[in-house]
Design goal:
Shape: globular
Order of helices and strands: HEEEEEEEEEEE
Structural class: mainly beta
CATH superfamily: Galactose-binding domain-like
Number of strands: 11
Mean pLDDT: 88
Distance between the termini: 32 Å
Helix content: 10-25%
CATH architecture: Sandwich
CATH topology: Jelly Rolls
Largest sheet: 6 strands, antiparallel
CATH class: Mainly Beta
């Protein structure tokens, strides 16, 4: 009887872990250019207030075809089904900057990552807001959020909290 109760408790605990929402800071982000090499077109740094947000800036125009990405590792993402991804952001300035694309990629072997979520919705809100996109896949490896940006000098893209909901 005790073993049965223990098994039920373990099953419920496992379901709770699978159903949880996880939150991530964008700090630790890395700017990358076409085909993955480090980019010198964009700069990422901690944003003031709160200092756990990320500020993306540039000194040169970055167009849609420049393929400039900000990769944010989602370290500690638990295995299980992901239901949605939520990215909170704000565009500051008047130069027409925006987030062009959101991707979740998963890596199991070196030099090979599979795109699991690819949302091409342009995100251009000047007010702080959160954008949600459906994910619907099971995590089986190291997951990275990739944010494609289009920017003008003088503008800022602020990335706040990132949420993965089960």
């Amino acid at each position: 009887m005790k073993k049965l109760i223990l098994l039920v408790v373990l099953a419920v605990a496992t379901q709770f872990l699978m159903a949880q929402t996880q939150f991530f800071s964008p700090l630790g982000a890395v700017p990358v250019g076409p085909n993955g090499p480090a980019s010198n077109k964009v700069k990422v740094s901690a944003y003031c207030c709160p200092s756990t947000a990320l500020e993306i800036t540039t000194n040169v125009p970055v167009g849609e075809n420049d393929f400039q990405w900000i990769n944010i590792p989602l370290d500690g993402l638990n295995a299980g089904l992901i239901g949605k991804l939520v990215v909170c952001y704000q565009i500051q300035g008047g130069g027409g900057s925006y987030i062009s694309q959101l991707r979740l990629t998963e890596m199991m072997a070196p030099n090979a990552a599979a795109v699991k979520v690819d949302d091409p919705t342009d995100l251009n809100s000047a007010a702080p807001t959160c954008f949600s996109t459906k994910a619907a896949y099971v995590v089986n490896g190291t997951t990275t959020l990739a944010i494609k940006i289009v920017m003008r000098p003088g503008d800022k893209i602020i990335i706040g909290g990132i949420t993965v909901a089960r």
